[in-house]
Amino acid sequence: MASIIKANQLQDFGGNSIITSDGAGNLTTQKINYPAFEAYLSADQTVSDAVTTKVQFDAKDLDTDNCYDNSTNYRFTPTVAGKYFVFARVMALNTSNTNLASAINFIYKNGASISREQIDFTANYIKNASINNSLIVDMNGSSDYLEVFGMVNVISGGSPSFYGASSSLYRWCRFGAYRIGS
């Protein structure tokens, strides 16, 4: 025998709404994975050879709670405490020569590196490389912030840079995070 329960709202013991319905079958759930953002580098960013440089992710595809600054500090400062899945991809490029020796992608929390991924080509130089980095980070929801830095090391000549593009097909430099729990 089947049972039917009719309700337009489910609440937890504290009276907080978990799920609501508009009466037509459309549900609204609690913002579980918020805040969340994803930003990208919209044009090439020229950098100095072998110098750790902040990647200036200047455009956003998503920013649910306006926690990512894409114009001055290029950082994510979430307003809700919890654990966050963080990801960053940096495309290191030497625009005029095939002499890229190595590239590094750093994720920083509060001004210090907490994760580093590196690719080394010193035995067989190339022109560009995409470096991915991801981890889970605890954030306090008030003052903690995240940034991405990169380093491009070329042997000689050329113009080291981070590869940026406005076309969604070629957005090789990306930075994002979303809350996964408390």
Q: Mean pLDDT across all residues, rounded?
A: 90
- Largest sheet features: 7 strands, antiparallel
How much is the radius of gyration in Å? Answer: 21 Å
Low-confidence stretches: none
Q: Give the terminus-to-terminus CA distance.
A: 39 Å
Q: Please identify the oligomeric state.
A: single chain
Helical residues, percent: under 10%
Shape: elongated
* Count of helical regions: 0
Sequence of secondary-structure elements: EEEEEEEEEEEEEEEE
CATH topology, which one? Jelly Rolls
Number of separate domains: 1
Proportion in β-strands: over 45%
Instruction: Report the CATH architecture.
Output: Sandwich
Q: So what's the CATH class?
A: Mainly Beta
Structural class: mainly beta
Beta strand count? 16
Task: Please supply descriptive tags for the structure shown above.
about 180 residues, mainly beta, Jelly Rolls, seven-stranded antiparallel beta sheet, four-stranded antiparallel beta sheet, elongated
Describe the fold and architecture.
The structure is a single chain. The protein has 182 residues and is mostly beta strands. It has a single domain, classed as Jelly Rolls, CATH 2.60.120. It contains no helices and 16 strands. Strands 4, 5, 7, 10, 13, 15 and 16 form a seven-stranded antiparallel beta sheet that branches. A four-stranded antiparallel beta sheet has the order 6-14-11-12, with no helix packed on it. The protein is elongated. The two termini are 39 Å apart.
